[in-house]
Input
Amino acid sequence: MGAWGTGIFADDEAADVRGDFRHYVADLQDVAAATDAIAVDYGASLQRPQDHTAFWLGLALTQRKAGWLDDRVKAAAVQVIGDGSDLAKWAGADAARRAKALAAARRELETPSPPSKPIPAPWPEQLADFRVGEVIGRALPDGRLAVMKVVGRRRTLSLKVKGPAVRLQKWVSRQMPTAAEAGRLEYLRWPIAPNRIQTFGHLVLTAPRKAPLDPGMFIRPGVVVPLTPGEDRSSYTCVSTWASFSMDDILAAGVARFWDDPSLDARAYAPWCKPETREG
Output
């Protein structure tokens, strides 16, 4: 994230919020709920707005323009203007120009909002009957099996759809685990991506609206087990939007080293990760 100018939206985070918030409203059909959700996804807190000043300023002005200004967001934006926490990030001539932009933003926020725009139509929900905690499988072209657990539902902003988020589990058998075995599975902390230069966490099983994933692609024995601590917390990537890789490419790369070495711990770091850079 970075700024390329002193305007409120001359900042990556503020500009992204302006583009994303409408999608959150469409998904959740409620401005307050969308506010809470986008704040969580951006790592911003109403309790400490000074930590993400660009976020709150961008969100406040975006909401006001649509006639959806949440009082909490307005208060956060006015606070970071009034207490100097945003201006403190600027120096010299840029500080003077930013001060003018902040003053204009405050005047705008303190002016009555225009009439509310209609809430956008809700996004389609793909694979809607996949349950949180459900253990599913995908038979891969190489004969191996990728076992996943549904850990929640996530948005795919670029596709404007919502679907199940899954996490790969450690399982090296061509048969799906029994209910008892599924309850003991561990999720793969650092599965390697098909580009071989990064790892991934959640995968979101969504696809373009005109060609959603077929539920028949997945093996579903009807086993549902509770989530383990941390299993639902991670960055996430849609299986349909990762460069030129297919879903099977991603799954195959993620499970490959655990099939190649079944003794490998599910928490094993990527081979290139040095001990001093490893995080829990």
